[in-house]
Here is the input.
Amino acid sequence: MQKDTLEHGLKENWKQFTLLVIVNAFVGGMVGLERSILPEIAEKEFGIAATSAILSFIVVFGIVKAISNYYAGALANKFGRKNLLVLGWIFAIPIPFILMFAENWNWIIAANVLLGINQGLAWSSTVVMKIDLVGERQRGFAMGLNEFAGYLAVGLVAWLTGWIAAEYGLRPYPFYLGIILMVLGLLSSIFLIKDTRGHALKEGDTSDFPLLKNIFWDTTWKDKNLGSVTQAGLINNLNDGMAWGLFPILLATRGFNLEQIGIVVAVYPGVWGIGQLFTGRMADKFCKKDMLFVGMFLQAVVLIALVWANTMWQFVGLMALLGWGTAMVYPTFLATIAENTHPTDRAKSIGIFRLWRDMGYAVGAILTGVISDLISIEAAIAIVGALTFFSSIVIYVRMKCGEGSSVRLLRIKSSKLES
Here is the structure.
C-alpha cells in the first residue's frame, strides 16, 4: 500500500488496531503464566529457599527483555514491525513446554531468557505499531488500550494459573494455557497483522518536531521530559519486579493459600490493565507531568502501607490502589515519549525507554532479593517505596506539561520548579 493513501487515527485503522490489542493480550498472558506460582514451584519442587535465588528468574527476564526492547526499537525501521512481532512469537514456542517439564531451576531460567526476548520484541512491536496507526491524535488512549489488553491478560492468567494449581497441582496443568496463548499469538501475527512502517513515514513527512541530537542520551536523561519519563519507568518496573517475586512469598508467610495468593496477586495487574482504559484518555486531556507525579506518588504511599497489611481485604485494597497508580503512569510514559520525538526517532526512542524501564525488573529483583535475605521482606518493600517517592519528586522538579491545551491535574503552582 502506498503511503499517500494511508490515513492516521483509531477510526480509520480500527480493524488493525483491534487485532493488535488482541495480540498484545496474548503477549501479556505469557507473563501471567509465571505471575503467581513460580516462587511456589521454586520452593516446593526445587527446594530453593533463598529469596535472591528464587528471584533469579526475574533478573534474567528483566535483562533479556530490556536488551530485546532496545533492538526492537533500533531495528523496527530496518526490518519492519511485523517481522519483529512474528520473531518474538517464534521465541515463545518452547516456553510453556519448558515450564511444564523442567527438571531443575536452570531450565526455568532458560525459559525466562526466551520469555524476555518474546516480550521485548512482541510487546515493543505492538506499541510502536499502534502509535504509527493513530498518528498525533489519541496517543494516550491508544497506549491505554494496548497496556489494558496486556496487563488485564497478565492478571487473568495469573488468577487462572493460581486456581488451576490449587485444584490440580503446580505442574503441568497451569501451563497448558501457555500453549494456547502461544499458538494464537503466532498465527494471528503471521496471517492477520500488517506492517505499519508506511504510517510512520507519512507522519514523518509532515512533522516539524526536531530530530534528537543523540537519541540514546537524550532519551536516557539529557532531555528533561524524556529523561524524567525514563527514570520513572525504571523505578516503576523495579516495583513490578518486586511485586512479581516478593508478594507471593510475603502472602505465603502471612498464611494465605495458593488460591488466595492468586486472587491478591491478580488484583494488581487487573486494576492496572482495566484502569488504563480511563487513564489513557486522561493522558490525552491532562498534563502528563501531573499524571506521572500523582501515579508515582500514589505507588510510593501504597508500598509503604503494604508493610503493615495483614488481612485479605487490606491486601486486595492496597493492591488495587497500586494498580491504579501504575495505570496512571504506564500509558502516559509511552504517550509522552511519542509526543517528544520526531516520527523517525520514535521507534528507537521507545526502545531506549523500554530498555531502561524493563531493566528495572532486574534491579528490583536483585535489590529486593538481597535486602529480603539480609533484613526482611518488609524492609525491601519499604525501601522500594522510598525510591518511588524520590522518583515522583524528580518528575515534579524536571518535567514540563508541554502542551498548552492540556488541563492541569494539580493546582499546585510549580512554574519556578519547571523553569
The two ends are 45 Å apart (CA to CA).
